[in-house]
Design goal:
The chain is an all-beta fold. The chain has no helices and eleven strands. The strands form two sheets. Strands 2, 4, 5, 6, 9, 10 and 11 form a seven-stranded mixed beta sheet that branches. The relative contact order is 0.31.
Length: about 120
Amino acid sequence: QLQLVESGGGLVQPGGSLRLSCVASGSIFSISVMGWYRQAPGKQRELVASITGGGFANYEDSVRGRFTISRDNAKNTMYLQMNSLKPADTAVYFCTADVSRLTRYWGQGTQVTVSS
């Protein structure tokens, strides 16, 4: 079993920054890829960024150059640094951890609201 807990969401003005954190506990030795998804009201959940255990990162086009995903394996923590935030980034952000090709764990989500 694996537990994921996100934090760092909140209300920020357009152009501002936030850093999300995701702490993993439990069977952390089995984690391969970790990622951040988001879901805005009325929209489908979408992948924002992902990162392998070796640090290889992948980004959705709309966030590339503004968001940075990172991972501290010693602290069992993943981060998402979000800069130059836009109202379109408003969503619930979810942390994920893959332990196999068929098993993905999800966090409970943290709300990010970008508004003036």
